[in-house]
Amino acid sequence: MTLIWIHLKPIQEKEYQLLTNPQIKNEVRKYYIQKGFCQPRMDSYPLTEIGSRMRQFCKSWFKGPYSKWLEYSVEKDYVYCLCCYLFKDEFFHKSKSEFYTKSGFRSWNKALERFHKHVGDVNHIPGKCFNKVLDLSIYYQSIQVAFDKHFQKLKNST
Hints:
Strand order of the largest sheet: 1-2
Largest sheet: 2 strands, antiparallel
Structural class: mainly alpha
Radius of gyration: 18 Å
InterPro entries: Znf_TTF
Shape: elongated
Helix content: 40-55%
Mean pLDDT: 74
Distance between the termini: 37 Å
Number of domains: 1
Domain TTF-type: 53-145
Protein name: TTF-type domain-containing protein
């Protein structure tokens, strides 16, 4: 199953605070899973001077192994991991690095190396987080299908 979700803005700091509220955490997760990943396909992305060279985000990074978690903020010119944003608190209590969740990542000259390191973590936290996203999306889809069938049955019986 390939998930291709696109929306215009990644999760924001104030929205992230909602994930710490246990009473609404699952509703916030549901909203973001249904909203999908922020993966805007643009003709060009802002240039950033890194060392003596100008670098930029590459839209080809939305394909392949990074497509299932990578988000890009047009406003900030940073990337994030939606899966880790939504579920990292279930797998580790104190994050050593929050650049994929809160502060963002923009070292474009090392992007592929860092992306690979992110998904290849010893504990494979991003994979566990992605599996949670996938599980919830399938769960919500199955509930929607059940409701649709039920309402269609009611409609046909009247």
